[in-house]
Amino acid sequence: MSEFRLTRAQERRLVETLRRTHDVRQYRRSLAVLECGRGKPVNEVAAALHVTRQSIHNWVTRYRHAGQCTALADRVHRGRPRRADRTVDAFLQELLQMPPAQCGYHATHWTVSLLQDQLRQHLNQAFCDATVRRVLHRLGYVWKRPRYVLAADAQREKKVSYPARAWQLTAAQCRAGGG
Questions:
Q1: Which InterPro entries does this UniProt record tie to the protein (predicted)?
Q2: pLDDT in tens, 126-160
C-alpha cells in the first residue's frame, strides 16, 4: 500500500467518530484507518485488531474513495426474502378471529400446529413452528397458557360453613382464648 496520510481535518473526524459511535464494527474500521493514517504499519494494525491485512487495505481504500467516515459503516444487509408474506399475515389474521371448532378441530384455542395445518391446507405451503410464531408476533398476538375455570356451584351455600364472627362469640369463649 502506498503511503497513506490523513489531514488534520480527516483525523479529527475519525476521532470524533470513535467517540460517538456505538457500532463495534465501525469503531474497529475507523480505528484501523486512523492508525494507518498516522503511519503505523498495516501488519501491526491488523495484529492489534485481530483482522487480516486485506481487511485493513479494504477499509483504507473505501475511506480514500469516499473521503468520509460514513463509508466505514456497515452496508444494509437485505437477507433472504420472507416466505411468510402479506398473504399469510392476512390469512392468519382472519383465521384467528374464529374458533378452531369452526374449522373442524376438537379444540377451544388455536395452537401453532393447528395453524400450520390450516396454512398447509389452504395455501399449500408448509411453515415451521418458528415462522408461524414470528408471524403471530408481528401481528401482535401473545401466547398465554389457557386458564381452566370451573362453573359456579349452585350448591355452594349448603356446603360451606362460615366461621363464627367475633361478635357472635360468647363472653366465656372470649375469656378462654377463643377470639
A1: Homeodomain-like_sf
A2: 999 999 999 999 999 988 777 788 888 888 777 77
Q: Count CB neighbours of 84 within 10 A.
A: 19
Query: Residue 105 in contact with residue 114, Cβ under 8 Å?
Result: yes
The DSSP call for residue 168 is G
Angle, alpha carbons 173-176-179 (nearest 5°): 60
d(CA 145, CA 155): 30
* Cβ atoms 83, 131 nearer than 8 A: yes
Q: Quick one: cell of 73? A: 459503516
Helical ranges in the chain per DSSP H: 8-20, 24-37, 42-49, 53-66, 86-95, 112-123, 129-138, 156-159, 171-175
Distance of CA 43 to the CA centre of its chain: 39
Residue in the block written with cell 370451573: 150
